[in-house]
Amino acid sequence: MKCKRNRKIIIFLSLILFFINNKDNSSENNNSEKKAKFLKINPFYDLFNSTIRQNTILVFEPNYYHYECTPGYSKYLVDLGYNVDLLINYSGIDSLCLFEEIQKLRIFFFNDLNQIKNYSKNLTFIMKKYDFIIVQTTDEKNKDIYSQLQLLRMNNSIFVFHYINYAKDNYSNFFGENRIWTLGNIYKGLQVNPHYFGNIKIKERNDKIRFFLTSTKKRNYKPLIESALKLKNENISFEIQ
């Protein structure tokens, strides 16, 4: 009798452990599925075998930086009723970690711009199928890429400029068609400033405001200094790091 009772106890405990393990595994699987769904990315050459959805815009960032702009442009386009395909460097994927409507996005990544150059003819054919193509950073060093992809000859391409002087000399025909976008309010071009970074819980502000600044060489700091002096004159406590 004692042996049978011990056996029942062992079976009962085994069933409990089995249930717990299955529950944990199920939770892990669900989390993995959610994570896999969120992080579902495709190598860029998958575009050649993909159906381009109706009402879709392609956002192309040729550089490994400026991905702080990607969630904002994607959000604006989704809110306007578009699907969005992203052709981006692998380094930019994390910028979308807080993007809510990930089901509206398809991410196609490349590791090196030479990959885009090597498949430029195939990509040109695909790009013509989109409603619009937004070149998220337009700069002089990538002009060969724009030429190879025939972006300057397409009537569905839009060019975003972070530095406008290059646009004045090379893209004058596009200004009147609102196909030149700028980050700031400049005398020419359409200002579209992407200030959405995802679903972020805003915390209470500290008594002392801290600004964090990233920069590059030859940056014009005059507006920053003027703004700092204005805040100081208004007796606002702040520091710039």
Tell me about this structure.
35% of the residues lie in helices and 17% in strands. The protein is an alpha/beta fold and 241 residues long. It folds into three domains: 1-38; 41-191, Rossmann fold (3-Layer(aba) Sandwich); 209-240, no CATH class. An eight-stranded parallel beta sheet has the order 1-4-3-2-5-6-7-8. The longest helix has 37 residues, at 2-38. The relative contact order is 0.11.
Please provide a brief summary of the model:
The protein is α/β, with parallel strands linked by helices and 241 residues long.
Topology:
Blueprint: H1 2-38, E1 41-43, E2 56-60, H2 70-79, E3 83-89, E4 105-110, H3 113-118, H4 120-127, E5 132-135, H5 143-148, E6 157-161, H6 165-170, E7 180-182, E8 190-191, E9 209-211, H7 222-233, E10 238-240
Parallel strand pairs: 1-4, 2-3, 2-5, 3-4, 5-6, 6-7, 7-8, 9-10
Summary tags:
single chain, 241 residues, alpha/beta, Rossmann fold, 3 domains, eight-stranded parallel sheet, two-stranded parallel ribbon, 7 helices, 10 strands, 17% strand, globular, disordered N terminus
